[in-house]
Amino acid sequence: MIPLSWQTLLARKASLAGSFVALALSVGFLGAMALTLASAAGGHSAQPRWFSRPDVVVARTDTVTITSASGGDRETQTVRTGESRAVPGIVASRLAGLSLPGGSCCPPRSRR
After folding, report:
1. How far apart are the first and last CA of the chain?
2. Residue 4 has pLDDT above 70, yes or no
3. Helix (H) or strand (E) holding 7
4. Whole-number average pLDDT of the chain
5. What is the CA radius of gyration of the chain?
6. Measured CA distances, 80 to 19, 48, 61, 67, 69 (Å)
7. 82-to-16, 57, 63, 97 alpha-carbon distances in Å
8. Residues facing residue 65 across a β-bridge
């Protein structure tokens, strides 16, 4: 019985390799799917652990500038994003009084 199965495996090497490839891909796919389900199911009840009380808040402008070029034509378009919100003035004044580890801080920008 074993010599017959050994001869069959030797005769069908491509099928054997294809079976191992399919097995490896399916194990990887099932592992990724299990991680996705575990992260989606278990993350809603926990309180935030990182950055819950940051020492420094960094904010950028709420505009996006896009420059598109085609040959000699250049077009620049700037739009405001609806996502970001301005830092309240009281918070900005409190943050201006902080001393940074490097010893330098940039001056506060004027509002537009």
Report:
1. 85
2. yes
3. helix 2-11
4. 76
5. 29
6. 54, 29, 9, 15, 21
7. 56, 20, 9, 29
8. 78
- Distance from C-alpha of 63 to C-alpha of 73, rounded to nearest angstrom: 23
Find where tokens 């896009």 sit: 66
| Polymer length in residues for the chain | 112
Residue written as tokens 């402008």? 61
CA distances to 55, 60, 68, 109 from 104, rounded to whole Å, are 15, 19, 37, 15
Q: 81-84: long-range contacts (C-beta < 8 A, 24 or more apart)?
A: 84/59, 84/60
* 53-91 tens-digit pLDDT: 666 666 667 777 888 877 677 788 888 777 666 667 787
CB 63 within 8 A of CB 70: no
Give the 3-state secondary structure of residue 101.
coil
Q: For residues 59 and 37, what is the distance between their CA atoms, to the nearest angstrom?
A: 33
Question: Is this model's pTM higher than 0.90 or not?
Answer: no
